[in-house]
Amino acid sequence: MSQGSVILKIIALPIAVILFCLGIMTVLGGHITPGGGFQGGAMIAAGVILCILVYGLEESPIKFSHLYIEVLENFGALMFIIFGLVGLFVAGSFLYNVGADISNLVPAMIQEIFHYPDVTNAGIVPYLNIFVGLKVFVGLSAIVIAFAGFKKITEE
């Protein structure tokens, strides 16, 4: 049973949607503005946490299954490692920015694959922000979902 008032329940979901949008904007603009993957992922998770705190775990309009959380978190970590290993194998450094290739170590064909279409030519940094944001968002959300589930178990 949730403890949230009617006013909180009316306003929580629109605020959560605004937090999602701001978090996505922070993640996608993290290579040219302050913020990035961690900050944006935390903002997105704040929307999920708000809904869980106001509506409760069972009635929350935003629900994630255990499998969904596990797959998303593993995908974010795996892609971050893969991007790091591409730099290691191509240029000799883990997380070398193969899209920007400042030291001219990467063949042009591989550089075009990871080139981010932006005037700042950030290379793989925006992609890394996306994967970090995904991992942080799912990780923080999973912690709160677990705590809310434990609270429900102890109340029963």
Topology:
Blueprint: H1 6-28, H2 37-55, H3 66-91, H4 108-114, H5 125-155
Structural commentary:
This protein is mainly α and 156 residues long. It has helices spanning 6-28, 37-55, 66-91, 108-114, 125-155. It is elongated, with a radius of gyration of 19 Å. The N and C termini lie close together (11 Å). The relative contact order is 0.17.
Q: What's the total count of β strands?
A: 0
Distance between the termini: 11 Å
Structural class: mainly alpha
Largest sheet data:
none
Features:
156 residues; mainly alpha; 5 helices; 0% strand; elongated
Short synopsis of the structure:
This protein has 156 residues and is mostly helical. It is built from five helices and no strands.
